[in-house]
Design brief:
Elements lengths: L3 E2 L5 E4 L2 E4 L7 H23 L3 H18 L25 H7 L5
Antiparallel strand pairs: 1-2, 2-3
Helix pairs in contact: 1-2
């Protein structure tokens, strides 16, 4: 099931928390290259943990961070209107709270 996105496309909502979306202005080929690099780096994190290799783990985490920065998910925001970044905020503690309350399924 795809995650809900805010109306402005800036965030994905996962378990009630905002996560910055990738920059939608990246060319498709560049975005795919970066996503592939991110997935490779995440696999390297997993394998270095399994191998208990601290140096490889540190390098893999740097690669994950670099890919996420290049995708626009970390670092400076990719939008240009000066709006604050609400990455990792709970939706209920953000300007999206009222919008989300109308769309979110009721809690059990």
């Amino acid at each position: 099931m795809p995650h809900l996105m805010t109306p402005d496309g800036r965030y994905l909502i996962v378990r009630g928390r905002l996560w910055r979306a990738s920059n939608p202005h990246l060319p498709d080929a560049e975005r795919q290259r970066l996503v592939d690099a991110l997935m490779d780096a995440r696999r390297a994190v997993k394998h270095s943990k399994q191998a208990d290799d601290a140096d490889a783990l540190a390098q893999a985490r740097r690669e994950v961070d670099a890919a996420k920065h290049a995708l626009g998910e970390r670092g400076p925001v990719w939008w240009i209107d000066g709006a604050q970044d609400y990455n990792r905020y709970l939706v209920r503690n953000s300007p999206y709270a009222a919008w989300y309350a109308k769309r979110a399924p009721p809690r059990a």
